Amino acid sequence: MPIYEYQCTKCGERFSVRQSMGQDGSKLNCPKCQEGNPKRLVSSFFGGGSGSSQISGSSCVGST
Ligand SMILES: [Zn+2]
Questions:
Q1: Taking the model in full, what pTM does it have?
Q2: pLDDT at 4
Q3: Buried b or exposed e, range 27-51, using 16+ CB within 10 angstroms
Q4: Is the per-residue pLDDT at 63 higher than 70?
Q5: Cα 15 vs. chain centroid, distance in angstroms?
Q6: How far is the CA of 39 from the centre of ligand 1 (A)?
Q7: Among 4, 31, 33, 61, which residue's Cβ finds the most Cβ atoms within 10 Å?
Q8: How many angstroms does the Cα of residue 52 sit away from the middle of ligand 1?
């Protein structure tokens, strides 16, 4: 399950939330000031998704 990072738009508090795919963070509240609708930050760990595949080339070369 990926972990997303959010930033409160009110106090600027950053916090990470573990969510399943497809969930949105609009129902989250800032743990500090309880402000809702935090801004989702782009995580460098999981960044992107589909698009550029790094895994290519030497893998599973049939040797029979
Ligand atoms: Zn806040």
A1: 0.58
A2: 85
A3: ebebeeeeeeebeeeeeeeeeeeee
A4: no
A5: 12
A6: 11
A7: 4
A8: 35
Cα(17)–Cα(34) distance, rounded to whole angstroms? 15
Calpha distance 18→30 (Å, rounded): 14
CA of 5 relative to ligand 1 center, distance in Å = 13
Cα→Cα distances 28→12, 17, 33, 45, 56, Å:
14, 9, 12, 21, 38
| Ligand 1 centroid – CA 9 distance (Å) | 7
Q: Residue 21 — φ and ψ, nearest 5°?
A: -60, 140
Phi, psi of 15 (to 5 degrees): -150, 150
- SS3 state at 6: strand
Taking ligand 1, which is a single-atom ion, which protein residues have CB atoms under 5 Å away? Answer: 8, 10-11, 13, 30, 32-33, 35
41 CA → ligand 1 middle, Å: 15
